Amino acid sequence: MEVYTPVKLEELTEKLSKEKKVFQFLAGGTDLFSSINRGILHPEVLINLNSLKSSLDFINISTEHIEIGALTTLQKIIDYARFKQNAKLIPDSMYKALSSIGSVQIRNLATLAGNIANASPAADSIPSLLVEDGKINLLSTEGFRKIEVEKFYHGYKKTEIRPDEIIYSIEFNTAGDKEFSNFIKIGTRSAMTISKLNLAYKICADEIKLAAGSVSPFPMRLKTVEDCWFKAPPLTIEKIQEILTQEISPIDDIRSNANYRIKVLANIIFQINSNNHFCFPDEVL
Ligand SMILES: Cc1cc2nc3c(=O)[nH]c(=O)nc-3n(C[C@H](O)[C@H](O)[C@H](O)COP(=O)(O)OP(=O)(O)OC[C@H]3O[C@@H](n4cnc5c(N)ncnc54)[C@H](O)[C@@H]3O)c2cc1C
User: Fold this and answer.
1) At residue 284, does pLDDT exceed 50?
2) Measuring from atom 40 of ligand 1, which residue has the nearest CA?
3) Cα(95)–Cα(51) distance, rounded to whole angstroms?
4) Regarding the domain delimited by 179-274, which CATH topology (the fold level of the hierarchy) does it fall under?
5) How many CB atoms lie within 10 A of CB 162?
6) Where are the domains of the chain?
7) DSSP 78
């Protein structure tokens, strides 16, 4: 396998515009090497991004948005959120989602861009990005292209990234004063576990946003449930289950089965809805 290590972004985008061979980017390698070892991916060229840290490892904050560079590790984002002066800038749903991924060793290598590009239905960062108006900045020789996370996936492991593009950065909302957001992960154990299902939600005045993972080919907003949230009659577990049966398309796999996923997701959503939105236990279950 050929390994190519660009030292400038322009050099990389030029290379991508001409590359004819099958390639993969190497960021933290936590998904990539596992997929190569298991024979799922067979890249002819490995494009090692790690000499581009000066261009791609950053966290930029404005009043309303946070922009995370493609080589920023999950642990760096978590540590950033822990600084006192940054308290409350990173939404709780995002902080909890990133903190639930793997172990500290994994999070010290793994990037947010890699979690997004790997496009697993169970990727824990994506539901939070969906409720926080996440956007992805793609870069090519043509310049930047911004795409909403909601429009980024269009099938199992299928994304909008063109072969000549790279994820440059990811943007999402900073946490607002009058909102509550949370992330709930259901797995076999409380750490180092891939989600059987996950849910991010954000409540602000009379608006709710819900997004779930591991219940469809890619993480998705639960818009029909959202539409019924504040309407009478109040949502029952049966009603939520009925809506979810139409809205999501979970599968049976080694981690869980479709029936379990619908029932547990309905139970969680019912508890959030009936507890006036605030009382669900906030740790990994
Ligand atoms: C033990 C273990 C536990 C884990 N636990 C969890 C978990 O609980 N939850 C979870 O969601 N994930 C989990 N993961 C998966 C993984 O850690 C994450 O998906 C990680 O964020 C991937 O980032 P990376 O930098 O390692 O990507 P890499 O492995 O380097 O790359 C992954 C994919 O993204 C592409 N890519 C990388 N960067 C870019 C870019 N800038 N532009 C375009 N494409 C790019 C690569 O080509 C590759 O296809 C776990 C993995 C391991 C090994």
Assistant:
1) no
2) 167
3) 27
4) Enolase-like; domain 1 (3.30.390)
5) 12
6) 179-274
7) H
